[in-house]
Amino acid sequence: MRYALIIIFCTLLQAGHGYANPDSTQAVDSTKIIRWGAEVGATTALSGTSPNWSGGSANNLSGNFYVRAFYNLKYKRQAWDNILKINAGAISSTMTDNLGNKFRSTRKNMDNVFIDSKYGISFDRATWLSGFGGLNLQTQLLPGYNYTRDANGREVKNLVSSFLSQGSLMSAIGLEAKPSERFYGRLALFSLKQTFMLNQSLYEKRNQNTIAGVNKGQYIRSEQGFQIQTGFNREFNFNKQILIRTNYLAFIPYNFKRNPSPLDSRIDAGLTVKLTRYLNFNYTLISVFDKDLARPGENAWQNSWVLGLGFLYKF
Q1: Closest by alpha carbon to 108, among 156, 137, 69, 147?
Q2: 35: enclosing H helix or E strand
């Protein structure tokens, strides 16, 4: 499955390359318009102290990598829009065991894949309004761990998640309002949410019979409900130096009054300030609210964010 994500990404780039210049809009003929583009970025940070630092010595190295690609095709009243977003990052720190020996601990601080594909047909008169069918996939690429210490104070990794464990696939049919290229809103009266737990060994490792609402021995849990999605993209400054992107995705099951997780939400927010041709300041936030993902007594909001200076390349 992870190879399929790579193939989809390469296909989007190759499809766009055949028609237009990078991050461009091109009228292929009098009725067909194609917009496509991709960004690859990375941020790194290194911090450290001397061994005699009174607050405790430390040596940390962090790095984050992201990819964003889109391919949009408009032909007469039809539109096909695709987005791929990959965020991955880790932080490496020096730690000390009970004997005073130092060792290095490396943990991921961001790992997320989001794919959204939507096909729509606009109405004759209200061309800003269309009926659509869409799919979006959310998962992680790398294994995820909780960390404890053994009797010697050394770090012990405990596997808690992996590729498509958990992950979700949502399909939806409904209406989309797109008054401009900057803003869109979707309302789906029918949406099917499928939650995946492909790695069955996690039930034993976590000592749980239910993870993310999927019972042990099952691989997929299906729910039907409503879907709401809205997004905003805006470039500021005459030279397009500042870019803000937001996206909100919500799933409301039909039986929300009896459902333990009556509203599942995901917020994506990004701020990019271009400093030079390749250097940029960026902030990325992924915030998820899903009671099925939280253990009893835990806060259902989960947040992952990155703030820093980094490298950005568009092609």
Answers
A1: 147
A2: strand 32-48
Tokens coding 47:
């911090």
Q: Up-side HSE of residue 314: CA atoms within 13 Å toward CB?
A: 14
Q: How far is residue 169's CA from residue 276's CA, in Å, rounded to a whole number?
A: 38
Q: Which CATH number fits domain 2-314: 2.40.230, 3.30.160, 1.25.10, 2.60.40?
A: 2.40.230
Q: What are phi and psi of 283, to 5 degrees?
A: -135, 130
The answer to whether the bond into 229 is cis (omega within 30° of 0) is no
- Which burial class, exposed, middle or buried, applies to 259 when counting CB atoms under 10 A from its CB (0-12, 13-18, 19+)? middle
Nearest Cα to 219, choosing from 262, 171, 264, 166?
Answer: 166
Q: What stretches of the chain show up as alpha helix (H) in DSSP?
A: 2-17, 201-206
- Answer for the pair 132, 174: CB distance below 8 angstroms, yes or no: yes
Report d(CA 36, CA 80) in Å as an integer: 12
DSSP state of 203: H
Kindly report the pTM of this predicted structure.
0.84
d(CA 91, CA 113): 19
Using CA atoms, how far apart are residues 20 and 14, in angstroms rounded to an integer?
10
Task: Retrieve residue 102's tokens.
Answer: 């130092």
> What is the rounded radius of gyration, in angstroms, for the C-alpha atoms of the chain?
22
209-265 pLDDT per residue, tens: 999 999 999 999 999 999 999 999 998 886 768 999 999 999 999 999 999 999 999
